[in-house]
Design brief:
458 residues, alpha/beta, TIM Barrel, Immunoglobulin-like, eight-stranded parallel barrel, 14 helices, 18 strands
Length: 458
């Protein structure tokens, strides 16, 4: 203890000097640049379309899905995401056909959907049309009859009795949990991920329950995949660390639930402002969030887009595209699908022309052409615009040197005469949906019907 006394006295003397203690010249308080993943250039204004292969066509095959790709491209889709393409386990299977998330073999394709050549043809055709393909990857668990369970039983998680178990805290009894403390498992899974990018030509992955797999594994995977070619990685998770070195985008689950609460009268427009405030101030600057009104989980287990959002559906869809975020369109939404698709059985989507399809097509065109709406640092941040009906109306601008957008949403069941505290540039603005032109000045008023929206563009 005595040897520390001179140091203690020196520190006390320093604190007693008049004025703040001096720091070395090289110390800087300038904000450090965010070092995250390097997003592929082709994704900066991309949209995502999810295909549930089993339900997408009457045939439920890759070849049948390939025939629909021109229609999907015509919607303005850039990235096609296919739910797991691999063979499905039979042991402990749920339902007649089982869950595609119970993978029996990571290196082959589900014969229900076709052969590897059929999948390769699908990928090639998507590329010809200017689209990119990502596939679902289920790294956290496998089917009970995946050969790995007998070849490498040490790669699996054990319960208190020493038995291989499904993922703790879930009802996923049709799968066996994988143990990422095992170097051999990490090596096998990494090489499998590389195979589909290098040899088949896919462009990335949507990673199932990504947060259940160690972050350092994903960081390594991203580095190795990018060494093959630039990839796009989407995490089914919602934490900031996913963006540090592994994932371009994460699920905005909380965005979806916030909009649902507002729709159900459990919250008002202030909750939406709060969500975006958190996004801007808590999440990394170039972290892309996937915004959606439906996906396979929401549709099958919680309700159709109509059940989830009712009269606010179109407003929610518009916000998912013009607000910050990367928009997702789940197959069947554009056809106004009114049923919860079966998850373990065949349940083909009933295709038809529907206004929802036209809405997405128009919105995706706006996203592509208006640089203010591009993702992350490629676009412009949302700037909140105060208005006279803050409990009901959410309004914001996004603008850069080339483009500007003003958007307002009446998230209430009554009409609102609302004034806005804004002064935009003197150029005329055009209502993107009606074609009406106008100047927006401080104090400008708009009459807004229940659950309506206005999107004005420069």
């Amino acid at each position: 203890m005595k040897t520390l006394l001179p140091l203690v006295l020196l520190l006390v003397a320093a604190c007693a000097t008049e004025g703040p203690a001096m720091l070395p010249d090289e110390v800087s308080f300038a904000p450090a640049p965010y070092v995250g993943v390097k997003h592929p250039q082709w994704a900066r204004n991309a949209t995502i379309y999810q295909i549930n292969t089993r339900q997408f066509t009457p045939e439920g095959t890759f070849r049948a899905a390939e025939a629909e790709l021109p229609r999907v491209r015509a919607l303005g889709v850039d990235i096609v995401w296919l739910m797991p393409i691999h063979p499905i386990g039979e042991k402990k299977r749920k339902g007649t056909l089982g869950s595609p998330y119970a993978v029996r073999d990571y290196l082959t394709v589900n014969p229900e959907f076709g052969a590897l050549d059929d999948f390769q043809s699908f990928v090639d055709r998507a590329h010809e049309l200017g689209m990119y393909v990502i596939i679902d990857w289920v790294a956290n668990h496998s089917a009970w009859d995946n050969p790995l369970i007998t070849q490498h039983p040490e790669w699996y998680t054990r319960d208190g009795n020493g038995e291989i178990t499904h993922t703790t805290g879930t009802d996923w009894t049709d799968i066996a949990d994988l143990d990422y403390s095992q170097p051999g498992l990490r090596r096998y899974m990494t090489e499998a991920l590389e195979y589909w990018v290098r040899d088949v030509g896919i462009d990335g992955y949507r990673c199932d329950v990504a947060g259940y797999v160690p972050m350092d594994f994903w960081n390594t995977v991203r580095r190795r995949l990018d060494a093959i070619k630039p990839v796009f990685m989407l995490a089914e998770w919602e934490t900031r660390d996913m963006h540090a070195a592994a994932f371009d985008a994460t699920y905005a689950w909380s965005w979806n639930s916030t909009l649902h609460q507002v729709t159900m009268g459990e919250a008002d427009a202030g909750a939406i402002r709060g969500w975006y405030y958190g996004h801007e101030n808590i999440w990394p600057a170039d972290a892309w969030r996937m915004t959606f009104v439906s996906n396979h989980d929401k549709n099958s287990w919680e309700g159709t887009q109509f059940e989830q959002f009712g009269d606010a559906l179109e407003a929610a869809i518009v916000l998912s595209v013009v607000g910050e975020g990367m928009p997702l369109l789940y197959n069947g939404q554009e056809a106004g699908n009114e049923k919860r698709l079966e998850f373990f059985e065949r349940d083909t989507i009933e295709w038809r022309d529907h206004p929802i399809g036209g809405l997405y097509r128009k919105l995706f065109a706006l996203l592509h052409e208006n640089t203010a709406l591009w993702h992350g640092s490629a676009g412009a941040p949302m700037v909140h615009v105060a208005n006279s009906k803050a409990h009901a109306v959410y309004s914001f601008t996004r603008s850069n040197d080339s483009n500007a957008v003003f958007a307002a949403f009446n998230f209430s069941a009554v009409s609102q005469q609302v004034g806005f505290d804004l002064h935009l540039a003197s150029e005329r603005y055009r209502d993107y949906f009606s074609g009406e032109t106008m100047h927006l000045l401080r104090g400008s008023d708009l009459q807004m019907a229940p659950w309506s929206f206005r999107v004005l563009v420069r």
